[in-house]
TrEMBL record:
<dbReference type="InterPro" id="IPR018198">
    <property type="entry name" value="ATP_PRibTrfase_CS"/>
</dbReference>
<feature type="domain" description="ATP phosphoribosyltransferase catalytic">
    <location>
        <begin position="53"/>
        <end position="202"/>
    </location>
</feature>
<keyword id="KW-0028">Amino-acid biosynthesis</keyword>
<comment type="function">
    <text>Catalyzes the condensation of ATP and 5-phosphoribose 1-diphosphate to form N'-(5'-phosphoribosyl)-ATP (PR-ATP). Has a crucial role in the pathway because the rate of histidine biosynthesis seems to be controlled primarily by regulation of HisG enzymatic activity.</text>
</comment>
<keyword id="KW-0963">Cytoplasm</keyword>
<dbReference type="GO" id="GO:0005524">
    <property type="term" value="F:ATP binding"/>
</dbReference>
<dbReference type="InterPro" id="IPR013820">
    <property type="entry name" value="ATP_PRibTrfase_cat"/>
</dbReference>
<comment type="pathway">
    <text>Amino-acid biosynthesis; L-histidine biosynthesis; L-histidine from 5-phospho-alpha-D-ribose 1-diphosphate: step 1/9.</text>
</comment>
<dbReference type="InterPro" id="IPR024893">
    <property type="entry name" value="ATP_PRibTrfase_HisG_short"/>
</dbReference>
<keyword id="KW-0808">Transferase</keyword>
<comment type="similarity">
    <text>Belongs to the ATP phosphoribosyltransferase family. Short subfamily.</text>
</comment>
<keyword id="KW-0547">Nucleotide-binding</keyword>
<dbReference type="GO" id="GO:0005737">
    <property type="term" value="C:cytoplasm"/>
</dbReference>
<keyword id="KW-0368">Histidine biosynthesis</keyword>
<protein>
    <recommendedName>
        <fullName>ATP phosphoribosyltransferase</fullName>
        <ecNumber>2.4.2.17</ecNumber>
    </recommendedName>
</protein>
<keyword id="KW-0067">ATP-binding</keyword>
<comment type="subunit">
    <text>Heteromultimer composed of HisG and HisZ subunits.</text>
</comment>
């Protein structure tokens, strides 16, 4: 049996991702210990788990440094890397929405859009023929319309709490998002047996 390497996005998807590995029979106790470790050898299962920032997961999978990864659809839509997206894991459900201040709309001729997802925003507004200026942000995007940096934002909305507490409202929903299982294209051929076993086991738990 070959060792399968899997990258897991740290942050909001990590707990569910580890939970899914446990559901398919993998002992993940060392992953839950309070440590700063990033690489975990689960030798009894021929598995290596690495914890990465979500935005870096597709890069590791694309380069074949890991065979598979669990990452949000938001990151996949933004990066459009050549990976196999094989399964909607159904957790981490949220959406890409456009939001702005109450009373403001999308009617302006030229909109300034603050976002952590410039490619998604560019594509979305291009498909509507709307002229926009994209203002890239790294976080706390909700601040931009409040402070006058942008007219609107395109961001992830999960509970809606951040928007509400900052006086913003949803103007349009763009896409439903959730965690996805992605594969390196070469690994899928060279380690097909091991990878298929994992996919099948996950599939049974997810559906
Ligand atoms: C995300 C997103 C929103 C918030 C939405 O930010 O960018 O700000 O979560 O969640 P809610 O609808 O449940 O309030 P994140 O927490 O990842 O932090 P960031 O703003 O630093 O990127």
């Amino acid at each position: 049996m070959e060792t399968i390497k899997i990258a897991i996005a740290k942050g909001r998807l990590a707990k569910h991702s580890i939970g899914l590995l446990e559901e398919i029979g993998i002992d993940c106790r060392i992953l839950k210990e309070d440590s700063r470790k990033l690489v975990f050898h689960l030798s009894s299962h021929q598995l290596e788990v690495i914890l990465l920032k979500a935005v870096d997961v597709p890069t590791y999978v694309e380069h074949g440094v890991v065979d598979m990864g669990i990452v949000g659809k938001d990151v996949l839509m933004e990066q459009e890397k050549p990976l196999y997206e094989v399964m909607d894991l159904k957790f981490g459900g949220c959406r890409f929405s456009i939001a702005g201040r109450l009373g403001d709309g999308l009617g302006k001729k030229h909109l300034r859009v603050a976002t952590k997802y410039p490619n998604v925003a560019r594509k979305h507004f291009a498909s509507k023929g709307q002229s926009v200026e994209i203002i890239r942000q790294e976080g706390s995007v909700e601040l931009a319309p409040i402070m006058g940096l942008s007219d609107i934002i395109l961001d992830i909305v999960e509970t809606g709490k951040t928007l509400k507490e900052n006086g913003l409202v949803i103007l349009e929903d763009v896409a439903h998002l959730s965690a996805r299982l992605v594969l390196n294209k070469v690994s899928y051929k060279t380690k097909k047996k091991e990878i298929s076993t994992i996919i099948e086991a996950m599939g049974e738990k997810v559906n």
